[in-house]
Amino acid sequence: MPKHFGAPLFGAGILLPLIASVAQAQTQPAPTTTRLDAVTISATRTEQTAIDTPEAVSVVRREDIEKRHPGSVVELLRDIPGASFSGGPRGTAVRPTIRGLGGERVVVRLDNARQNFNAEHKGRIFVEPEFLRQVDVLRGPGSTLFGSGALGGVMNMTTVDATDFLKPGQMMGGRVSAGYASASDKKRGSLMAYARPMETLDFLVGGSAHTQADLRHGNDTHLPYSAERNRSALFKVGINPDTFHRITLSALRYDGDEKAGASAEDLVGSRNLAVDRETKQDTYTLSWNYKNPADKLFDVQATVYRNQADINEKTRASVRHDTRKQTVNGVDVANTSRFSFGDSAHNRLTYGVEYMEEKQEGRRDGIPTAGFYPDATMKTTGVFIQDEITLFTDWTLTAGVRHDRFDLSPTDRAGRDGSATSPKAALSWRVTPWFMPYVSYAEAFRAPSLKGLYNQGVHFPMGPFANNTFVPNPNLRPEKARNAELGASFRFQNLALERDSLRLKVSGFENRIKDYIEQTVGATTTTTSNVPNARIRGVELEAAYDAGIVFASLGASKLRGDNRSSHTPLESIPAAKAVTTIGTRIPGTDLEAGWRTHMVAAQNRAKADKKSGGYAIHDVFVSWAPEQFNDALRVNLTADNLFDRYYKPHESAIYAAGRDIRLSAVIQF
Hints:
669 residues, mainly beta, 6% helix
């Protein structure tokens, strides 16, 4: 075990005695729920608490977003075991990685709309955290319910609406926030207005903006061409025709300007390699939910959506003008029926259909980029069914299967089609009220991407790999994953103090991937090929304790990936990590303060130029929400990377931010 894990394990050993001794002089009651009790639908498409789900799923709630007031989604998800981000510190280079699988192997959804954009190191997540109600991260294959691409997992984001802010009896209100971050001289601001003019109608409109200068590292140098300016807007209308129906119309816009490199993940040391890039993304959704507790046959969730991403970039030396455009139109419909066989078997049967049409266009100086980002259309249809069967009140068997068919049609060459079936099964046993072991098996697939199939032409025009060219591989086979997992969850009440709570979930898994698609950059060529057999193994631990006056959490993971054909490591596997948080709520002050430590081990299972050293990063935070203002005011102060560590995360070519002092305030009226 890496030496960096000594501190969190030692801390876990002394945590409960410390909490008990601190709390003897204080009697502030603890909440009855913890972070792991958050409700999620991402694991089974039915409502469950995260701790009771027989899969590894983490939830970040609105309460967590309010307290952190993060500048990016990355800041929200850094604590989650098995989850990491590649691409470096530039916001528009960020790509999520779950259990060592990133890029198109993670399904990203926003208000149930697929976010499929993934073009040449230009990021995948374009959303303002201020607009988010909840983020669910499902770790492990999720193709049974979410289709192609979910080999690593699913990242499911939901935006806020007026009902998240309006208090009982309130017809209208507003919210203003402002923030500053020192590492990049970032200035942020947002404004939201919301109203419920009648019981059957509510709406919300919001806007946000931020600007920042070049990012400062821990050695007091700055990252060239990392300044950016972003603007976002959200409009959402909710209609309730009656008590059990809700129709929601949403429009979300992201508009970002930055100066970076053609590959925003890399260091840009020359003006000739820098670009002026504008990133726009529009997501439109129309959803209908029907939920009547008395109706056992119908519990419907249906969404029609359109998602469009546009990248427009010009080299600062005025030698090239590139545009990338991707549009995804889709529909997703699911229904849950509940029925029983006697008193011993209760069923929640979920079934549905999903259709998606994805189009992309690429231009360089107005000419189609047939060999680099070809014009193409991909159509995918999936049908799925899943049954959650509760047996004798203590056992739950979940079994499901999905069949997907895809049809890929480039404009200037032969297309590809294919299909895949993704089964899933899980069994959990509520042995006692506080202990639930589970075992699960799931399969997933990912259709080959246009990049791997058809990319050709120059990859690196300059630098040490100058004139390196892509070699297309039109014979790529779909990736297929088979994941077996064993885990257990624990939930305790009144453990050390009256009304305290402890939640803990641990899991071990092995994900075997057939025809793993790997890109290899050689001295003169960049090739993409199938690795016949790859394997990723890992263990994860997630725990949260809350005693009112004191709270603590721990998230830890260790992964190992191997190319079993060549007996070499998979280089995309992140280093082992542990994140510990311990804090206090100071009675009579409405203050919450704490200390967070990120400990990351060295990653030596990689080529010499890809190895990374271990590091420990410490953050402190204070959040103040005066009770006398009835949630109308919140002030947050944090110091990330408190000791100004100069470090570079694994799978990043760029050093991270140095000490970042952040101050934010929110006023709600």
